[in-house]
């Protein structure tokens, strides 16, 4: 079957509104938002149901056409972008945006893969429940893509990654069959846990079309604090003390350097310095309780007071209202935007054991500064789960193109530190196209063979998001 004949069949399945072939219409689906990856495709297909997805996949399997599944296209590693040769179709789940069921008593929600994260958060709140996954792209990111990449975000410390927030999945397999695993059970000890094959597989084993999500009680009290700390080591010690003092009520614990804050104040409107004196490092933390009590705030204040006495903190402000809390969290998000205005930025999404975060930052900063004098590290991120976004802004006055041309070289310097500390070169962004060539290095021979065996068993023709994750 020719590609043209296959596209005619696909058009008959999804309708005229379900397929895009004009270059201008397809353009938003063919480029990563940072501009690092751009691809080509004969068509962007937008099915509206699981049945349509399955029918499209069957046509592609018969015609030998590779498929790139795509959610909100917020990937940072090129996982949702086709290659330049133009062989692959993009299959967007954006029209599959129904909330199928909410069961407040079972604390579950069943959704289509294309539902945007903020919609899920709002639907949970409407029934007095919480869906805790939260990240910067939540207004665009879709749940199917978030599960496929095992996304993290700011609340992993308390609630876990996307994989841990899923009870069941519905998946269209590479041959077009549908696996209905939409079970709402918390205990189901009947064989292999298949859903965890697809969570984090980046669309290389099948297309997630639906999910059963875990919900949680909504917090009744939240305390947000912005704390000046002298070092990353002090931040890690502060985290341990806050967890102990509040009965493990820490939901988020974010570290940022002074340079990060200065970039935000310089470039992003609405950014400000919350404290009267500068500090080399800061922590932004949120603690939540299921009941409202003066004792909870007192416990937070007492823990911070003890941190001052132990010289783990030098200053702090606790938000007095929800508005103030949002202003503090705005600073955290502004860090990402601000880096764009400081020239080229080489980005690393890495993780180490929490106890080794300070050692990683110290060693990695020294290593990159030796390799590229004048480089400006801007480390920030989720210290509570060991995930640091170790981003590196170009030296002042440097040529941006020449600096970015050293991306692989400088990332290799960072990776050497990561390997030495038993860490990971991808904490929450995935592998995609960007890091796939590192997989044989970071995975031992046995583990790598197992990964390839799984891929071969489920996708023997290699048509499901080819060239992603595994080289």
From TrEMBL:
It comes from the Bacteria. Keywords: FAD, Flavoprotein. Pfam families: FAD-oxidase_C, FAD_binding_4. Its cofactor is FAD. Residues 37-218 form the FAD-binding PCMH-type domain. One of its GO terms (molecular function) is FAD binding. GO terms for biological process: respiratory electron transport chain. InterPro entries: FAD-bd_oxidored_4_C (IPR004113), FAD-bd_PCMH (IPR016166), FAD-bd_PCMH-like_sf (IPR036318), FAD-bd_PCMH_sub1 (IPR016167), FAD-bd_PCMH_sub2 (IPR016169), FAD-linked_Oxase-like_C (IPR016164), FAD-oxidored/transferase_4 (IPR051264), Oxid_FAD_bind_N (IPR006094). Belongs to the FAD-binding oxidoreductase/transferase type 4 family. This is Hydroxyacid dehydrogenase.
